[in-house]
Every structure is written in structure tokens, then in C-alpha cells.
Write a structure and sequence with these properties.
The protein is an alpha/beta fold. It has twelve helices and 15 strands. The longest helix is centred in the C-terminal third of the chain and has 39 residues. 49% of the residues are buried. Bound molecules: 4'-deoxy-4'-aminopyridoxal-5'-phosphate.
Length: 380
């Protein structure tokens, strides 16, 4: 059997595109300036930041002035939720969903302990938010509605534009965690109609430790109280010397995403269909989570009843993929996302997540399937 590692974990992180690596290197060498400096080195870095900002804005359809660089989606989510709560708007209710990332649920919980009302709307078994249930929760007291564009575990895509309309019809702001959308499906800030959007570069073939928050121009006046104080970078919303190599890499990654997301989707979608068809044929009792939902083309979360996912990974050590549970103090706890889909804990422990990306090939899929088959047969 083939003895190379097969990377099937693109929702955790993606490989930096070779073009991105090439674009970054000079910023660790001769182009090392601080973009805030007034001299040649500073101006060189500053021009590259401005170009990257334009490439990013062009990729997600917003204005360059609306792009605020952060360290990634975790920081962007925190900055959005805590920043809005600290704004001049005095309402104290936030509505979100049960399947959000912990970097959304965490700041919401922190605000709850300070007296905010947090409403976590459940999703349907198909993984999508029910718009009527959402409408019933969003009211005149709602400050912010925060819902992700796509789920990292199931790949389910939410009807973001419709969700934005629900928020706006009650005068609430809408924040969208779009970390899993960039590079995987087309993203348009205008079509998403969000006021704030969070992104991470490393989920879209860029470097780690850099991301951005889109803050619509009309909203900036409300976010007058930043979470951190320092220099005036990023409109005072996120002070600190910019991560120039990171920003340049993110710009290069966004340029590629603009060109390749749609062709990538077609290629990756075919690879996933092959995996899901073959698994359904060989293991008829396997369950593909939210199979019929609108999903990211490369994400497949599969339950093999009776086969614990950690054991499966141990028997297929060349397959690099995620499982539906995480180790907490020595015990495997099923993910909150799978539990929110009403999947019983014992089945959630048998879930593996395959997430394909731009660099996966047909060969990867064939090898992965044969490793999976032999691991499952050994366990059975
Ligand atoms: N939101 C979602 C939906 C994610 O999948 C992730 C990363 N798993 C994040 C936010 C946080 O991204 P980062 O770790 O890059 O800050």
C-alpha cells in the first residue's frame, strides 16, 4: 500500500499556495520596513500593504478602507462581538446559533456574564438555521445577530443574505463569521449584506496568524471604543505594527482565490462525490451528516456506527483528517456542533471529517479510500 501522508484536513488549515510563499519571502529579507515609517523602507512596506488591501477588497467585494487586519478569525470574531457591545449602541441582546465556532460562542458567554441576553437559536437537523425561528428571536432590543457563513465541521452553508435581512428589519447589526467561506465558496460582502465579517488567511491558502475583519464604512462611527489602545493603525480599531509578510501573503492568497475558487469548487466537488458514493456502496450503514444540505464542496462528515473515530484514525495513520470529538482532560467529548444537530454522543464519537482542498488529487482520494476500507475492515 502507498506510504505517503494524505492531507484531508483543509477546514483546519490549508497549505500555503506556492505563489503566496514566493510573495512573502522578500518581506523577511530586503523589504523589512515598518509601514508606519516615513522613509524608503517604510514606504516600500506601506505600498505593499495598500496593494494587498486592494486585492483582498477586490476578492470579497468591499472597499479597501473597510478591511481591518487582525491575527485571524478568532480575533475578528472577538473584536466584532465585544467591540459592538462596547459601542455607543445601548441595546443588550445578542442572537447567535448553536453551531457557531467557539470564538463566537465564547465572547457571547462572556457578555452574558455581564448581564447581556444571549439567545442561541438551534439549527434544523439539516444544519441550516430556520429563518422563522430566527425572526421570532430578533427584536427591537437586539444589538447584534451573529451567524457563520459555513460550518467548519459539517460544511453546511447558511442563507447569509436572508439572515442579514432578518437582523436589519429589526434595526440590529449583522456579523458573519466567514472563516470557512473564503477560498471555498465565492464571498461577496455586498451579497452577504453583513455589517461585520471575519476571515482567516490560513483557511484560504495564505499564511497563519493573519486575517481580517470587514467593517462597513457606515458602522465605523459606532465602533468608536476599540478593545486595545496603542498606535492609530487600522483606523484605531486594531492598533499595533502590521504583520507585513502576513498581509502580503493574504493579499496574494486572495488574488488566487478570486481566480480559482469556482474551478476549485468543481474539481473538489467531484472528488467528494467519489468519496461519498464509494463509502455509501461499501458501508451502507455509514451516515453522511447533513448530506442533502447546501455544503462546502470539499467537506464530508461521516459517521461509521460502532467504529470509534479515534480508533479509526489510529488504524489509518497516513490519513490526516479530523474527528467529531475533541480530547478534554483525557476523555473524548463529542463536538457541540454534532450534539446541536441532535446526533447522540455515541454516534458523534464515530464521526470523521474529511475536508478536501485545492491541492488534493484523484490519486489522494483513491489511496485514502483504500486506507479507510482496510482500517474499517480490521476494526470490524
Ligand atoms: N470560525 C470558524 C468557522 C472556524 O472554522 C475557525 C477555525 N477553525 C475560526 C473561526 C477561527 O479561526 P482562527 O483559528 O484562524 O482564528
Amino acid at each position: 500500500m502507498n506510504s505517503r501522508f494524505i492531507y484531508l484536513d483543509n477546514n483546519s488549515t490549508t497549505q500555503c499556495a506556492p505563489e503566496v510563499v514566493e510573495a512573502i519571502v522578500p518581506f523577511f529579507r530586503e523589504k523589512f520596513g515598518n509601514p508606519a515609517s516615513p522613509h524608503y523602507y517604510g514606504r516600500t512596506a506601506g505600498k505593499s500593504i495598500a496593494l494587498a488591501r486592494e486585492l483582498i477588497a477586490d476578492c470579497v467585494c468591499c472597499s479597501p478602507t473597510e478591511v481591518i487586519f487582525t491575527s485571524g478569525a478568532t480575533e475578528s470574531n472577538n473584536l466584532s462581538i465585544l467591540g459592538v457591545a462596547q459601542s455607543v449602541l445601548k441595546k443588550r441582546k445578542i442572537v447567535t446559533s448553536t453551531v457557531e465556532h467557539k470564538s463566537v460562542l465564547g465572547p457571547c458567554a462572556a457578555l452574558q456574564s455581564k448581564g447581556y441576553t444571549i439567545c442561541r437559536v438551534p439549527v434544523e437537523n439539516g444544519g441550516q438555521i430556520n429563518l422563522n425561528k430566527l425572526k421570532a428571536e430578533v427584536d427591537e432590543d437586539t444589538l447584534l445577530l451573529s451567524v457563520q457563513a459555513a460550518n467548519n465541521e459539517t460544511g453546511v452553508i447558511q442563507p447569509v443574505g436572508d439572515i442579514a435581512d432578518v437582523a436589519h428589519s429589526c434595526g440590529a447589526l449583522f456579523h458573519c463569521d466567514a472563516a470557512q467561506a473564503l477560498g471555498k465558496i465565492p464571498v461577496s460582502v455586498n451579497e452577504f449584506r453583513a455589517d461585520l465579517l471575519s476571515f482567516s488567511s490560513h483557511k484560504a491558502y495564505g499564511p497563519k496568524g493573519i486575517g481580517f475583519l470587514v467593517v462597513r464604512e457606515s458602522l465605523k462611527k459606532f465602533l468608536s471604543a476599540p478593545l486595545m489602545y496603542g498606535g492609530g493603525q487600522e483606523d484605531y480599531l486594531r492598533p499595533g505594527t502590521l504583520n507585513v509578510p502576513g498581509v502580503v501573503g493574504l493579499g496574494a492568497a486572495c488574488k488566487l482565490c478570486k481566480e480559482f475558487t469556482v474551478p476549485d469548487m468543481a474539481k473538489i466537488g467531484k472528488l467528494r462525490a467519489k468519496i461519498e458514493e464509494r463509502i455509501a456502496r461499501i458501508f451502507p450503514n455509514a451516515q453522511i451528516i447533513c448530506r442533502l444540505a447546501d455544503r462546502l464542496p470539499g467537506t464530508s462528515n461521516i459517521i461509521f456506527p460502532g467504529i470509534p473515530a479515534d480508533l479509526l484514525l489510529a488504524r489509518a495513520p497516513l490519513l490526516c483528517m479530523s474527528i467529531g470529538s475533541a480530547c478534554n482532560s483525557g476523555t473524548l467529548l463529542p463536538s457541540h456542533v454534532l450534539l446541536a444537530l441532535n446526533i447522540p454522543s455515541d454516534l458523534a464519537r464515530c464521526a470523521i471529517r474529511i475536508s478536501l482542498g485545492r491541492y488534493n488529487t484523484e490519486d489522494d482520494v483513491n489511496i485514502a479510500l483504500s486506507h479507510l476500507e482496510s482500517a474499517i475492515k480490521q476494526i470490524q
